[in-house]
Design brief:
Elements lengths: L2 H8 L4 H13 L6 H18 L2 E6 L11 E4 L5 H9 L5 E5 L8 H8 L2 E3 L4 H16 L4 E3 L21 H6 L3 E7 L3 H4 L6 E7 L5 H4 L4 H23 L1
Parallel strand pairs: 1-7, 2-5, 2-6, 3-4, 3-5
Antiparallel strand pairs: 6-7
Helix pairs in contact: 1-3, 2-3, 2-5, 3-4
Length: 240
């Protein structure tokens, strides 16, 4: 059985009410607090993980700053990435994601509820506007997630290029960067069958402005990628 089909079948009793409530929040998003909307989204995603036979192993939560207004950056392996982050993190967070995901029902409603930002990487002007908006969000104390590769890796746990422009928002906002490393997240939808699956999510030590203030954006990208790559290599070896 396909894992997605299994998740749907196991959650049939809660899907109608959960979907109606999510759509209500998305349609009238300004009428509800971030906390209320985020709590409902986490409720749904917890059921996804549990019913999908996914064992989400999380480390490093102590590395997440107590003060809001930071940027989470990590490797991108697929749709489950953001599910893992939201399921693991109890404070409201928004994301930058490719525009195609905003056309998928359920994901579209989550984007609206979290005030996330679809980005068209083929449109330089629109991409710049998104980065400017993220900069303001960080300065206003919101927490954001961004995947510097821009699109999911097609090579499992190996990362693609990190785009330097991603980090313009922290250079201007002086926000902390919280790197995270995902391992085997791609298997959730790419792997045939629905046998139990372990996915790892490791939050690394934050990189504060004092550490990156003298670096160029491409140097920040290289620094973040290096630390994520080291964490992936270390934890794959530990699990083998």
């Amino acid at each position: 059985m396909n894992r997605l089909v299994m998740v749907i079948l196991k959650n049939l009793p809660i899907i109608p009410a959960a979907w109606v409530k999510l759509c209500k929040y998305a349609k009238h998003t300004d009428d509800y607090s971030y906390e209320e909307k985020y709590k409902h989204i986490r409720y749904i995603l917890k059921h996804v993980c549990k019913s999908g036979n996914i064992d989400l192993r999380i480390t490093g939560l102590e590395n997440i700053p107590d003060k809001d207004g930071f940027l989470m950056c990590g490797n991108h392996q697929g749709i489950f990435d953001i599910i893992a982050i939201v399921e693991s993190f109890d404070r409201p967070i928004a994301a930058v994601l490719k525009k195609e995901l905003n056309e998928i029902p359920f994901l579209k409603q989550i984007v609206q509820c979290t005030h996330s930002y679809p980005m068209d990487r083929e449109d330089v002007r629109q991409s710049m506007k998104v980065i400017q908006s993220v900069t303001k969000e960080l300065m206003d104390g919101r927490n954001m997630v961004i995947f510097p590769e821009g699109t999911r890796s097609k090579d499992g746990n190996n990362m693609g290029e990190f785009h330097a422009g991603t980090f313009k928002c922290v250079m201007k906002s002086k926000a902390p960067i919280v790197p995270f490393a995902l391992i085997d997240s791609f298997k959730v939808l790419d792997q045939d069958g629905c046998d139990p699956l372990k996915v790892q999510l490791h939050y690394l030590e934050p990189i504060y402005y004092e550490e990156y203030k003298d670096l160029k954006s491409n140097e920040i990208a290289a620094l973040v990628k290096e630390r994520i790559g080291a964490a992936i290599e270390k934890n794959i070896e530990a699990a083998s």
